[in-house]
Amino acid sequence: QVVTLSLLMYPVLRSLALQLHSAITGSYVSGTHSIAFINCLNEQIAKDIARAIMDKKLAAYVNILPKSSALYFWKGELEESTEILLIVKTRTSKIGELSNYVRSIHPFEIPEIISLPIDQGNPLYLKWIEENVPRD
Q: Which domain holds residue 13?
């Protein structure tokens, strides 16, 4: 029972330890922030989703990249299309909420929503992300 409780508490304790480390040392803890990639059918949908993400304060910054060609398998068939890509900068702790929200508003049956942790970067930029995306 104690082991189960401690395993359930691990993410919370790890998060608190990382926040404490960062506050004491003033250094960036790798993985505190993430970049999420979200594909969209067209520019209007991309702008609408980007604005909705920003309105919910789920990101500090969203890039909307122009049309790109895409090849993928869908229901056993090779498909080709054009897409608009969103690149979202946010706290790693917000990725789950971001993903759930985007799935609720995205027109695709299975939208691409993937993320990668930010290992390192300009400390001032990373601090700016932190200041513009509220904590959980």
A: 1-30
